[in-house]
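Hi L.,

You mentioned the student needs an example of a multi-chain input paired with its predicted structure. This one should do, with 805 residues in total across all chains.
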Amino acid sequence: MPNESVLLRVWGDRAMFARPAFKTERVSYDFMPPSAARGFLEAIYWKPQMRWVVKSIRVMKPVAFASFADNAVARGVQKPRPSEMRGDPRDLRRDAVEDRLQRRSLYLRDVEYVIEAEVDPEGPACLSGASSPDGARKHREMFLRRARRGQFFRSPCLGTRECVAGFEPLDEPPPPNPDVPDADFGTVYHDAVYEPDDKGPIIESSSGRRCRHVAHFFHAVMRGGVVEVPPLPGRRNSL
Amino acid sequence: MIESLVRARSAMARIPEYGMAPEGYTPQRVAFVLVLSPDGDLLRCERTEKRCSMLLPGDGAAIAAFDPRFLWGGSGYLTGAREPDPRKADKREKTDAEDARRMALHLKMLESLDSGCPGVRAVVAHLRKWTPGPMADGTHPPQGYGVFRVEGCDVPVHDMPGARADWERLRALAAAAEKDAAPCSVLGIPLPQARLAFPIKGVAGGMPVKKLISFNTESAESHGMEQTANARMSKAAAQNMAEALNAMLDGPLRDRHAFRADGMTVCVWADGPQPAVPWLVDMLAAGYPSAFGLEPERAAALDAAHAALEEGRWPGEPPEAVHVLALTAHQARIAVRLHLRLSPDEIVRGILAHGEAAGLDGLPLAFPHMHPMLRAACRQKGDAAPEPFAASLLPALLAGARYPDELRRRALAVVRDGGDVSAGALHLVKGHLNRNEGAGMTKGLDDGRTEPAYLLGRVFALVERVQALALPDLNRTVKDCFYASAMTTPAMVFPRLFRVHTHHLRKLRPGGRVYFQKLLDGIYGGVSAMPRRLDQHGQSLFTIGYHHQRQALFAPRAEADEAAEE
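Structure written out for the whole complex:
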């Protein structure tokens, strides 16, 4: 294992890595996509001077699904318009009971993964474009200290916040589970790249530039319980 | 799942029985034909036969208000006017203006092609010189879709070779003009994105128009995108997926792919040139009303499949993989309750394992069916299972998964409440004992088992048999009166049962009396302590012990008959 890589074992009773096409009545991917793995790592440790690059994901338990009904709300909390702010405050009220949306979701059940990732010290805050030679090791060590102590900025989760997860760093990759057969998961969401776009709906918080979200996908094949993740095309600017 | 459906659509298009239209065409009901002269004069309007269907160029019915279809459409697109609706007299001016605009859009689209086809030229000439309004006799074309035909031609204009070539050219131009090509979440390559989802037919429940890819709530949208754009699917993938599902759930061959199970719609298809797996559908659907009256060919194929499975092989040519998809509908949305993707070997192993785990001597099915196991949880005949348990039972039948705990609990509750110990309940209980609890139950009587609950079940069967021999004409037996309480609180019930049993024994002949007494002593002697209460595990052992002993009590008679004949 290269020096700058980290191994993190994550586990939980349920996981919901919702497929893009199934966001209302949710259906999970068969395993943890790289973007979810990146999010998990960022919940433990992240700084604007670095970004996480997921190299591989090991599936340690057989893929199993379970269907659950859950209650959600149909409308999001939208930023009120100025006219609404000047009007009756009661019009801004959002009542979850009135707005109830019951739906069925297909979760992953009893999951365990080992994420292998490395630090890329050229994050969006690195304006000069040159990285410090110690940058990757420094961030890696900080991450490992936090992971060993169970520290995090926000609770890491397996896709959605109700899917509680445990985690611990590993020194060596574990042996594959013989009960996990090889599988072809098809096209799976990789991660997002935010491309500059003057008419884009998203504003980058660090620079104020408008950009648009471009999703990238890759063909995920699991061999020996390992899904190798290819590099993401283009740079990703963290928001 | 979606990738497999897209591939299945291609396979179905090569099989005529599916009735699938080639890409770029859609079957539609046509109500009338406008006959034109070669110069574009409207000669007459002919009504078609009732329920006339034609293959028309286009992806589907016009869903946008101003979206002309190539050489077909409602009367608004063809004559710029429609039959006035007396109920909407106040909106007539607005409706007429919209229809005139539709006709203008249709003309603009056709003029852009500069076609060399005489039929298309005739339609362009007609649209150029026609004033929006009724025909010469003051009538309007009937409601519905219409097409054009040139006088003297046998085929409609859209079926003429030149028109078909123009349509392909128009499609290519439209595809090249698409600006929003983005990576497709299904196919993985940049393609024009789907903006609207396609409805899925044939799923039970919910509203008449339902969609599998649905973003009809704000909370499901993200990154500033609206509606189906959130799916990141290409239009091609979304359409092919919908067409494949509709063909399997609502097409002419739907009985080879789909069945309804307790409010859920289950769809089965295979990866490969032949998407249908009829024998598997028949096996899973056995017992449901939709499966009654199986045709002789299908019944023979199912028998052949059973024989092949017992030999441990897939019947016929094995496909690459088999998919089982369970869907339920809620209002305008369809939810996926289960998706299994299994290889033929996995399915064969799963079915054999299910037969081994849940099969019992004395019951007719080597591979117990889903329907009777689900019915075991219903209190009344004809009730649907209280919760769609089919989705949790299917993996147990096909993939070696655990049997649902809740289903076993409900089946035992039905028995305790006075219900019959049905074959489905027996299969379910035994399967759960073996696979979930590792009990190692055999199909027939196991004299080596020492669990008190199992032995008490055997004793109960013995007591029931003795009563039947002593008092053959009873309306209510010990089973009717005491089974439920013996299964749950044996310490309270068995002392009374033994007193009754003693009276019954006295009525038997000496030989029978000795036989049954010895049998009872041999079984009951293994019960070290009478349990006060039996939990779910104990009740399951009791049930199986009861069944095993009942079957064994009939077996010695058959063996004795064979010995006497020799």
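You could point out the following to them. The two ends of chain A are 30 Å apart (CA to CA). The helical segments of chain A are 34-44, 82-86, 135-149.

Best wishes,
N.
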